[in-house]
Amino acid sequence: MSVSLSILDHRLHTFGRERSYEHDARIVDFHQTLLGLYDKEFDEQYLKQGAQNTFSHMGEVLLSRLQTDNDLQDVDLLVLGHCTPDINIWEAVVNRLIYQFDLKQATGFAISDRGGGTPYTALKVIRQYMHHHGKRKAVLLLLDQFTLPNYEPVIHQTDVQDTGFVMLLDQETDHKPKVIQVDTVSFKEYGGLSLEDWIDAQRKKLHIAKQDLLVINHSSDRLADPQVEQVLLPDQDLVVPPLKAWCDHAHKPYTLLCHYDQKRQFLLGVWIQAEEGEVCG
């Protein structure tokens, strides 16, 4: 499928603490029951320490900023991607945002439980859904929030902040930057082909010179080829960092956002072509 998606606009925002924690016995009971299924221990202290940003609030801020320079009334697909859970367990976030912003034409759903592959999966789903269902314009909303009901070393031992990213996509206009390809690859089907060999093969198929490519991947997947420039991300199951890295570092004609699951030998890759003469940020 050769459908490309033009990136019409995007916004990145970091959220501070805007409200205090309020104890709710129903939420405490929910977390205790859920964590118990995974032999994890609930600790309300971690809920109290968090920034208390709900997904609805984060989505509202990001869509409001996107709406400042864009007409969203013709958006017909809204996809939320997340790994960390929403602190408001009662709310259907996508439905609320569609109603709040009067996106009358929009279909919406959320993608989660895909670990660090969530943003890549979301872009793949958006691309396929728009192609097969005749959708014209989509919003991708990625949210990481860290008000959690238990201790998580990857989160609580690092300096992380609630962060959101929103991207407006269109398949009918020839606008750059654009998502030109989304790959899903099982290396078991390719006879144990290495990540580096696969990137090199795909790069050649797309007629991309090494010096024109930036690869954004995780630190455990560092490429050996010194001619390919890389931005290495921490090995965390978060959704915003790959797109934030694209915004902060993309200065080449092409960028590959890459998520490689070494255990399952599975790769998700998103190829983005830059606007000529400009960088993302």
Written overview of the protein:
- With 281 residues, the protein is an alpha/beta fold.
- The chain has two domains: 5-170, Peroxisomal Thiolase, Chain A, domain 1 (3-Layer(aba) Sandwich); 178-273, Thiolase/Chalcone synthase (Peroxisomal Thiolase, Chain A, domain 1).
- It is 29% helix and 27% strand.
- It has helices spanning 25-37, 44-49, 55-69, 93-100, 118-133, 153-156, 195-205, 241-249, and strands at 5-15, 77-82, 107-111, 137-144, 162-170, 178-186, 213-218, 229-233, 254-261, 266-273.
- The protein has a ten-stranded mixed sheet with strand order 3-2-4-5-1-6-10-9-7-8, with helices on both faces.
- Strand 2 (77-82), helix 4 and strand 3 (107-111) form a beta-alpha-beta unit.
- Helix 3 packs parallel to helix 4 (93-100).
- The longest helix is centred in the middle third of the chain and has 16 residues, at 118-133.
- It is globular, with a radius of gyration of 19 Å.
- The model is unreliable at 277-281 (pLDDT under 50).
